[in-house]
């Protein structure tokens, strides 16, 4: 599988790309992450394989480590950051897939 880069220090590998379901393994370098954004249709589940992650929403910040996960419902603004000292690896499962279903709330590339 060939990885794709989605932001500085951030890479992904499509494990399943189906019209109704997407499973991606992602890697985020320490200090890297994404801008606050929203998906109008997709529900997502983030599951940490290694490292630690902070997922920020309007109502709660989730601090997750290996073996933990969180579901993000459609229309929920969220942002993922690796504030740890090691590379973060996680699965993101989206239904339906997030292609063409992302709106950045803050300025930035991703």
TrEMBL record:
Coiled-coil blocks = none
UniProt keyword annotation of Metal-binding present: yes
- Output the superkingdom of the source species: Bacteria
Question: Which organism encodes this protein?
Answer: Corallincola holothuriorum
Tell me which positions the record assigns to the signal sequence. Answer: none
Molecular function GO terms recorded? metal ion binding
For this UniProt record, give its keywords in alphabetical order, as a comma-separated list.
Metal-binding
Q: Where is the Cupin type-2 domain?
A: 26-93
Alphabetized Pfam families for the sequence? Cupin_2
What PANTHER family has UniProt attached to this entry? OXALATE-BINDING PROTEIN, SLL1358 PROTEIN
Name used for this protein in its record: Cupin domain-containing protein
